[in-house]
Design goal:
Layout: H1 2-6, E1 24-30, E2 33-39, H2 50-65, E3 68-74, H3 81-91, E4 96-102, E5 124-126, H4 135-143, H5 148-159, E6 164-170, H6 176-184, E7 202-208, E8 211-217, H7 230-244, E9 248-254, H8 261-272, E10 276-282, H9 293-304, E11 313-315, H10 326-338, H11 344-357, E12 362-363, E13 367-368, E14 371-378, E15 383-388, H12 396-410, E16 418-423
Length: about 450
């Protein structure tokens, strides 16, 4: 039902009990009303299981924060003792509650929902979230409860959505959910020592000193050989998709065992996608330290992740909060560089000085390579095009030299850069070049 209201597959769907564990939020437009829909984990009112207890807490928070609640029964299973407990709990709230019975795919199956009147409710909505049967009536009913002024305020909130999207990725049980809960100051996400607690990619808005950030908590990414079921496979796919829609990636690693092959794979994917990366060594409070410890760990990270030599590294304890707030400043600084644009005139002055100090070499040892001009073609990540006569002959080491000089000269520290080398077409002068323009007919 959550996916149907969203109009896309935002939540994982699988015939596996307990798949949804965290609150999953989405901004959607329904009947010209812009609302926030919250998907919750399966609610077991009396279970003593630790995971189910944590999921119950998440659901209770969602009930408290919501204006409208939809109770969803299972028309295939029928009424259960848990349904009675849940309905009694909802009847004690002051919220507007709509009672729906799901998996009623047609009018012929509507007899399957009649037993739910034993719950003591006046109106039931037989629906099928899979096919959409009966959903129109339910949607009409709950949208009628939303005043226009509330819808207008939701539209304003949607326009003010956070500008920086931060994905928190890493192996299972490195502390990703604990870190986001720390930022929120509440148990927004289920954090449990058992690996695989987070199944879905959960979007959470975090406010820090008047500024909003969209943090995306992701499932722990294990090696392919250790992915044992379809649910985990989908979770890993969604974790990588979260990198695709983020600006800044926090690659969280366990300081007790840095850096694993899987850490390198995760960081490598973020690098290939051109995202800003911050390497986060969590659980630093569990490390025995002396005056040389920090340098040893930094050297180890740089050695294992050579392709991210420019990326900032920070040690934190998400559990105790040590240095974790510093991540907001680091995200802001990195995003400013990640989205920075340099004027073409400044770039070509830079190019003239760099080429004069270190020429790009020869083509086939006979012809000098000439770089005519340089321009920035995009931001996020900053991407530069060098126009030259023999782009194929520019050596990798010279490309790295230009990248490092760009980083130093224009303050791109910590940000990924993309360099393109293209063959100049025609004889047109470079942008900003002096002299009279050529006549054209």
């Amino acid at each position: 039902m959550f996916n149907l209201l969203c109009g896309r597959r935002k939540a994982l769907v699988e015939n596996t009990p307990g798949l949804t564990r965290d609150r999953n939020y989405a901004e959607v437009t329904v009947r010209d009303r812009e609302i926030i829909v919250v998907d919750t984990g399966g609610f077991e009112p009396t279970s003593s299981d630790v995971m189910l207890s944590q999921m119950r807490t998440q659901t209770m928070v969602a009930i408290e924060q919501s204006d409208i609640i939809i109770f969803l029964g299972d028309g295939k299973v029928g009424v259960t003792p848990s349904d009675h407990e849940i309905v009694r709990l909802l009847q004690q709230t002051d919220k507007k509650v709509f009672y729906a019975v799901n998996k009623i795919d047609s009018e012929k199956q509507e007899n399957a929902y009649v037993d739910f009147y034993s719950l003591g409710v006046e109106t039931l909505y037989p629906v099928s979230a899979m096919t959409g049967y009966g959903m129109g009536e339910l949607i009409d009913a709950f949208t009628d409860e939303i005043p226009e002024d509330i819808a207008a305020s939701e539209r304003a909130a949607a326009r003010a959505r956070p500008s920086i999207h931060v994905a928190v990725v890493g192996r299972p049980n490195v502390g990703k959910s604990t870190l986001i809960n720390l930022f929120l100051g509440e148990e927004r996400l289920v954090a449990n020592p058992k690996p695989g607690t987070t199944r879905d990619s959960i979007d959470t808005v975090v406010r820090h000193y008047g500024k909003e950030y969209l943090f995306i908590d992701t499932a722990g990414i294990r090696r392919r050989a250790r992915i044992v079921d379809r649910v985990e496979k989908y979770s890993v796919i969604k974790a990588f998709q979260s990198i695709d829609r983020a600006d800044i990636i926090l690659v969280v690693m366990d300081a007790q065992e840095p850096v694993t092959e899987q850490d390198g794979r995760i960081a490598g994917y973020a690098y290939e996608k051109g995202r800003g990366v911050i390497l986060v060594l969590n659980k630093w409070d569990l490390i025995e330290k002396d005056s040389t410890t920090i340098n040893k760990y930094m050297d180890k990270v740089r050695e294992e992740l050579k392709f991210l030599q420019y990326a900032p590294v920070v040690t934190i304890s998400a559990l105790k909060g040590t240095r974790a707030p510093k991540l907001f400043e680091m995200v802001d600084d990195l995003y400013a560089r990640y989205s920075k644009r340099v004027p073409t005139a400044g770039l070509n002055r830079f190019l003239e000085e760099v080429v004069a100090s270190r020429p790009p070499g020869m083509h086939h040892k006979t012809k000098p390579i000439k770089i005519y001009y340089l321009t920035q073609v995009r931001v996020a990540p900053p991407t530069f095009s060098f126009f030259c006569n023999y782009p194929e002959s520019i050596h990798f080491s010279y490309q790295r030299f230009l990248e490092n000089r760009l980083r130093e000269t224009f303050g791109f520290d910590g940000s990924p850069l993309r360099l393109q080398f293209r063959k100049r077409q025609g004889r047109a002068p470079a942008p900003g070049a002096r002299g009279k323009p050529r006549r054209t007919a």
